[in-house]
Amino acid sequence: MNQLQPTGPQPTGPQPTGAAGAHDEADRFRETIQRLRDEVHRVVVGQDAVVDGVIAALVCDGHALLEGVPGLAKTLLVRTLADALDLDFARIQFTPDLMPADIVGTMVLRERDGGGHDLAFEPGPLVTNFVLADEINRATPKTQSALLEAMQERTITVARETHTLPSPFIVLATQNPVEQEGTYPLPEAQLDRFLTKLVVGYPEEADYHEILARTTGESSASANAVATGADVVALRATLRRVPVPQQAETYAIRLMMATQPGSNYAPETVTRYVSLGSSPRGAQALLLLGKFHALVDGRFAVACDDIRRAAHDVLRHRIQLTFEAHADRITPDRVVDAVIDAVPELTSA
Fold this sequence. Notes:
Strand order of the largest sheet: 3-6-9-2-10
CATH superfamily of the largest domain: P-loop containing nucleotide triphosphate hydrolases
CATH class of the largest domain: Alpha Beta
CATH architecture of the largest domain: 3-Layer(aba) Sandwich
Number of domains: 2
CATH topology of the largest domain: Rossmann fold
Mean pLDDT: 85
Shape: globular
Low-confidence stretches: 1-17
Structural class: alpha/beta
Order of helices and strands: EHHEHEHEEEHHEEEHEHHHHEHHEHH
């Protein structure tokens, strides 16, 4: 296996021991996240939930799908976060004529110094830390599928050679929820690879004044590096060490199962309007996002409320609706609301 770059520094330092160590670990985690938030908001106005969602996906070692109409600063957000971490960034504009080799890379013929030629791998834009897959649903399924190996395995294979991608690595994809002409909806298998789906809405009225001041005046803000790739690796290690009580884990499992038609926990809304529910990846994502929310709140243990807070971002893209649901204007978020109402929060193991 060829390794394009080292897979990143490994976290070092003392491991948390006892309640005091866990508290310190949570404090360091929260301080780093707050620095990233503040730096991103020096450039991006508002969109607090989306900013937190993108940071959470990065720290959870996952990928995020951002859905919103053009002009809502999705590209700016991704680029700004990459700048705040001093990591490499690549934007890929997905179009119907984009081919897999255009994003993965290809073998090229190069002349040797002493004469003759060699075949060498020329990396594509996918070989970076932050990948913005802009309007991902405009590319054909063949090109969309080229992302699958990178998203799941953190590797790419070209000419029977497998190359390890740099770490940290994250795919942040965007799609327009309104304009569907000439698009290719992402298959369920690819949607399932996204840890979260974040809905990017319009700014508040008060935010428009600040947006205009920053974008139509003489000066514009830019982000400075306030953390590094090594910090991201350390944050991920901290998150993985957060314990999950049995009742919180069971609650996550039942929420995930409640999206599946025929499940003992499925409410009437799911039975009537859902054709396909969440896979086990949904429960995994609920626990990871739950750990993130707990640490940001300064706790080194996951509560059922942390799981519930993650439910919409984790489950909305893992629910496939029936034709009847579309006819009745039922949305995935309404289904998740029904699931949350139907599954009681557990108070004991």
